[in-house]
Amino acid sequence: MKKNIKYISILITIIFIFISFVGCSSENLPEEQTLNNITSASAISAEHSKVTEKGSQTEKTVSESDSQNSMPKQNKSTAAASATDSTTQKTSATKKAENKTTTKKAVKTTTTSTTSSSITCSIEIECKKVLNNMDNLKAGHEEFVPADGIIMSTRTVTIDNGDTAYDALKAACSKSGVTINAQNSVYGIYVKGFNNIDEFDCGKQSGWVYTVNGSSPPKSCDKYTVSQGDSIIFSYVC
């Protein structure tokens, strides 16, 4: 387009030179012919202006079109970048949630693995106080009292985690061959005697009590839950 405008400008210049030359050499030309030449030159000049304007408008339109076409591409690129960032953030959040879940599962697994299903404790049965009160002992029961007052020496037993002192007592007596005389009461299981030495056999206040680690629990032995390593002793008092 610019080359065409250049060629037209050169052509117009040549025509003007030619017209001027003709005007100078032919002073006797009729006035009407001179006017025609001027009119033709004016027409050519006007056409040149139109062509120039059209060229400028065409270039402007092409420039605007290129600009408009480039804007959506930029917007698409920006949108794509935003979508990528959003996807990255979601992926990161998902990984964090998975890591937290994995950590919680690991903690629970560790806790479960360290909890034992069984425990051990020791049981002893003694009636040493009867030795000091033989005069009060019911007749015919002397043969049931051991010389050292120990009906069952300390015995270690393994029971299920959550078992009671009475469960441990039954396990120990079963292995040692000791008989248990027990009955239900409103307070729970009450142990009345071992190997024929029962309550009231050595006075009106005589009977069996039990201690755990040296202390008397405020509940019957079938309601006391044993802990690992407990030392349980059943003693006869009179």
Characterization of the model:
The protein is an alpha+beta fold. Helix content is 52%, strand content 20%. The chain has four helices and seven strands. The protein has helices spanning 2-25, 31-114, 128-131, 165-176, and strands at 118-126, 150-160, 180-185, 188-194, 197-198, 207-212, 231-237. The strands form two sheets. A four-stranded mixed β-sheet has the order 2-1-7-6. A three-stranded antiparallel β-sheet has the order 3-4-5, covered by helices on one side. The chain is rod-shaped. The protein starts with a helix and ends with a strand. The model is unreliable at 24-49, 58-63, 65-81 and 106-113 (pLDDT under 50).
Write the layout of secondary structure elements.
Elements: H1 2-25, H2 31-114, E1 118-126, H3 128-131, E2 150-160, H4 165-176, E3 180-185, E4 188-194, E5 197-198, E6 207-212, E7 231-237
Parallel strand pairs: 1-7
Antiparallel strand pairs: 1-2, 3-4, 4-5, 6-7
Give a summary of the structure in a few sentences.
The chain has 238 residues and is α+β, with helices and mostly antiparallel strands. Helices cover 52% and strands 20% of the residues. It has helices spanning 2-25, 31-114, 128-131, 165-176; strands at 118-126, 150-160, 180-185, 188-194, 197-198, 207-212, 231-237.
